[in-house]
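Check this.
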Amino acid sequence: MFNTYTSIWITERIFDPDFVFNSSTAHLPDMFAYAIPPPAEMPQYMEYITSMPDKDSPEVFGLNATADTAYRLAESLTMLNTLIDTMPKEAGGSDGKTPEDIVREKLENDILKNLPPDFLEIEFKEQILRIQIPSGLDSKMNIPLNTFLRQEIEQFQRVLTIVRVNC
C-alpha cells in the first residue's frame, strides 16, 4: 500500500496547480480537495490546514462510500453490545432474597474469607530490616523504596479494616 501511494503521490506532478490527492472531488464537488497549497507565508498554510475536515470521506482513500457506512454500523453495534453487557442482570433462583442480601451473602462467603490477615506493624518492619541494602546507606527504614513499601502496607491495612468493619 505504501508503494502504491508513493508511486501516485510522490512525483513531480503533485506541484501542478490542478493536482489533488483525492481525484474523486471532480465527481463530488462538496468534498474537500486535498492539494498542496501554493507557496505562501506560514499563516496561509495554517489557514489551509485548519480548513481541512475533521473526518475524511472514504473516497479520499480510494474506498467506496459504503465503507464509511459499514464502519459506523460496526462501531454502533460494538457500542450497543457493550451497553447490553454492562446492564444489570436479574438474578434467578434467589429464593426470595433481595439483591442486597445476595451481595452481602457473596461478600461473606467469598470475599471476606479470602482477605489476607491483618498486617502487624512490628512484623513488616522487622522483615524490611532484614532486607540487604547497598553499603553506604544509613538506615534501612529511610531507603525510599522501603518507605514506599511501608506506606503501601499501611494504606492496604486501612482498606482491609474498612472492608471488614463494613461487611
Observations:
- Residues 71 and 133 are 57 Å apart (CA to CA).
- The longest helix spans residues 144-166.
- The chain has a mean pLDDT of 78.
- The chain has two domains: 2-85, 118-166.
